[in-house]
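$ ./design --mode recover --in tokens.txt
reading tokens...
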């Protein structure tokens, strides 16, 4: 069996062509006018199920099969086919759900499938690719592959930079959503010439081994000179992507500086719900005061810089959750500096830990949480309070 779609999408043929492939299966249900089976395709089985609208006169074969129709001159036979990577049954279900008895023209008109297909594939135009590379590229639905084939990839998720690898094609033209066009040139790129020797962005030498998102959005021309050996391109100290840490030391996680400090509280429900329950490292215990506002102070053994602090809601009564507060800091217990202010904070869940970033870098030996409003209850409570630095 051979599937021959329009020439521009001839890569489809490879998926369905089982004439010259190693193996496959081909089953004909004459009474049901159904043809099904699978083709081995790059390690997986691509199952198919097809129906025809004309009586099957004869058929034969096994891994390679054929079907004959007793047609008159110029009589058209319509074959509807669907595929699945799971099973013939799934392929048949896909055919029933997606196409049913509709003609190809009907489906195409309803879904504007042709236009959408052309639009999607038209976003990237490739030059200098082999037929097999185009089969892989156009059949690939994974962003990582498309990015990599273009020559760059968002290796550091959450950042705005794209790490440059090496392009796969001698020329790729990407039509961006904003109307700009990015052309990636790599003349002479091949399995041998796969190392970047130099690069230029819009004609200017580009030594960084990453691209900024803004550069991509601006469009333009990115050109690579390729070679057969690794080069020193992109290895300069300022050529590597920016780091979220500074210096050469390994990143260290923040630790809770509140632990071991001397706590005082404006009120508490001791001993079961006393202030020490704020720093006992479990949200199963809580501090509670019989007031709608509260002041909590932690005097530490030495001055530390706090980068974040966390508050954990307690097990019950959301009305007791803090809503408005300031975090203040001091080194002498007399002069207090407000280092963070929060209003209308909501704890959506019980025993929910919320982290708050402190912008300043100064170090202090005392920290004071001034809860100026809660969510309406006569009491205020918290399960944990951490000072992370
Ligand atoms: Ca703790
Ligand atoms: Ca606790």
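writing sequence...
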């Amino acid at each position: 069996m051979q599937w021959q779609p329009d020439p521009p999408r001839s890569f489809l043929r490879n998926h369905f062509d089982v004439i010259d492939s190693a193996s496959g299966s081909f089953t004909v249900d004459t009474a049901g006018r159904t043809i099904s089976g699978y083709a081995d395709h790059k390690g997986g089985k691509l199952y198919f199920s097809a129906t025809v609208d004309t009586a099957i006169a004869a058929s034969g074969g096994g891994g390679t099969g054929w079907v004959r129709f007793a047609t008159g001159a110029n009589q058209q036979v319509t074959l509807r086919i669907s595929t699945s990577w799971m099973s013939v049954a799934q392929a048949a279900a896909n055919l029933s759900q997606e196409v049913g008895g509709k003609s190809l023209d009907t489906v195409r008109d309803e879904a504007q499938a042709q236009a959408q297909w052309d639009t999607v594939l038209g976003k990237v135009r490739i030059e200098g690719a082999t037929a097999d590379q185009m089969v892989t590229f156009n059949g690939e639905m994974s962003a990582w592959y498309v990015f990599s084939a273009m020559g760059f990839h968002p290796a550091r998720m959450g950042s705005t930079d794209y790490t440059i690898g090496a392009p796969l094609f001698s020329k790729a033209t990407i039509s961006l959503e904003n109307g700009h066009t990015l052309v990636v040139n790599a003349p002479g790129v091949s399995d041998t010439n796969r190392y970047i020797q130099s690069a230029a962005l819009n004609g200017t030498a580009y030594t960084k081994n990453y691209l900024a998102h803004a550069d991509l959005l601006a469009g333009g021309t990115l050109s690579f000179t390729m070679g057969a050996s690794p080069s020193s391109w992109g290895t300069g100290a300022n050529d590597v992507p920016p780091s979220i840490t500074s210096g050469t030391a390994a990143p260290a996680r923040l630790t809770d500086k509140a632990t071991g400090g001397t706590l005082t509280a404006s009120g508490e429900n001791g001993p079961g719900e006393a202030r020490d329950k704020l720093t006992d490292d479990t949200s199963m215990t809580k501090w509670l005061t019989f007031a709608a506002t509260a002041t909590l102070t932690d005097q530490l053994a030495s001055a530390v810089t706090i980068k974040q602090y966390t508050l954990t809601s307690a097990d019950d009564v959301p009305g007791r959750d803090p809503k408005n507060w300031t975090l203040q800091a001091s080194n002498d217990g007399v002069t207090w500096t407000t280092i963070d202010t929060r209003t209308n904070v909501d704890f959506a869940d019980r025993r929910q830990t919320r982290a708050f970033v402190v912008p300043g870098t100064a170090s202090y030996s005392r920290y004071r949480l001034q809860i100026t409003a809660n969510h309406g209850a006569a009491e205020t409570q918290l399960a944990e309070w951490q000072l992370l630095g």
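exit 0
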